[in-house]
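Intended use. Records like the one below are meant for learning the mapping from a protein sequence to its folded structure. Do not use them to infer anything beyond what is encoded.
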Amino acid sequence: MINFTSALYLGLHHPSRLLQPWQQLSLGVPAALTEPPGAGEVAQQLAQLQGCEQGVLLPSTLHLFWDLFGMLFQQRAALFLDEGTYAVVRWGVEQFRAKGGEVHTFRHHDPDALLAQIKRLAYGRRKYPVAIADGFCPACGRAAPVGEYLEIVRHFGGVLVLDDTQALGILGEMPALHSPYGKGGGGVLRWSGNSGPDIIVGSSLAKGLGVPVAVLTGSRKLIKRFKTASDTRVHGSPPSVAVIQAARHALIVNRSQGDWLRQRLAQRVTRFRSGLAAMGLNTIGGWFPVQILRGIDGNEAVRVHQFLSRQGIQTVLSRPRGSSVVHLSFLMTARHTAGEIDHCIDVLATAIHGFEETLIVKETKYSDFIK
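Structure written out for the chain above:
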């Protein structure tokens, strides 16, 4: 079975034999009292990787954004949400709204729409604007216009909140034609060349770095305030020692092999897109490892998905936010071989050719009928 459903983009697995040993999984106390061993060190390394001053680990992005927007509610913020933002962020925003907070949405990746919303609704109300977006959107295959968002919120004394889960471990500094992901894997801030104390970044390591843990990074002042305000650090369990050791291992691998893995991943994506182009097909996603097939959707996408599954190729059926139409997606990882990519293209060509022949037969029969 060839798997194109895994978001472990760099192919990191972290087997226990490669991790530092631990004597117990948990200390039995909340993080507000005592941080688990290694948590502070790993969080600081992640903050440096992303271009921020400080960080703090949380069990998941749900914990992270729940607490972050709870803190922002106490500070009389007004939220401005990019309408393409991922569901987990929205769950945190809904808590903010349920408490009576002011929430507005603006068109996806549209700085002009953000500016118009802030001017119309927030300016002069003694509330500072908080713009919220995903660092990279796999549904449209583009990074957020981080610099433009940041310029707008800075003008009004606000902050920018990014969910950088997709980009962490993949995007980095100095992207180039031969190295589209850039170097280092620090995420969209490094990739776009932006930084500052008015940026807050929440990320899961579960995709690019392969570890089910989240990190919040930003200025020292922000992280200190967050630790004081966080409810889940008081009432919930912190990340386990095993997960923290896996995160430590992910950072070691990223330093020693990350750029090579990213280059290999880019080669696999390029090979896949070239194979599709030879068939007259293309995808949404550009050079990013999430590739959404264009021109084949709805029932046809379901039929192709089922055909590929019978041939031992796993793919993803997805429905973009705000759409009722199903699309077919392929998730690439650095573990895919060139042979697997080529085999997938061959089977996909067979599937599409077969459906085209069926459609021609049906159209011919219909033509005969209406004559």
